[in-house]
Amino acid sequence: MMGHDIELYESLALWVGLAVLFFFIGMAIQDVLKKGQVPLFGRVFVWIVLFAGCAGFIAKGVIQFFYETQGLG
């Protein structure tokens, strides 16, 4: 295998691993909210904060991608 192929596989594994990690974090939060009998307002607030964190992380990746492809990074 060439070095470029290995970098591609490592990058793909990183992003898939992070997606799986976010999924499991969401499932754990859902379980805690159900067992803690959190009111609807609290649940909505928790999910908004979780989504905002994920969206910020994704936005950072997209911005970094465009920054690097333009030859600035």
Any overview of this molecule?
The longest helix is centred in the N-terminal third of the chain and has 33 residues, at about 5-35. The model has no long low-confidence stretch (mean pLDDT about 90). This protein is about 85% helix and about 0% strand. The chain has helices at about 5-35, 40-70. The chain is built from 2 helices and no strands. With about 70 residues, it is mainly alpha-helical. About 0% of the residues are buried.
User: Main sheet?
Assistant: none
Low-confidence stretches: none
Order of helices and strands: HH
Rg estimate, integer Å: 17 Å
> Which quaternary structure do these chains form?
single chain
Structural class: mainly alpha
Dominant shape: elongated
Mean pLDDT: 88
Helix content: over 70%
Instruction: Indicate the proportion of strand residues.
Output: under 5%
Distance between the termini: 27 Å
Total helices: the number is 2
The number of E-state strands comes to 0
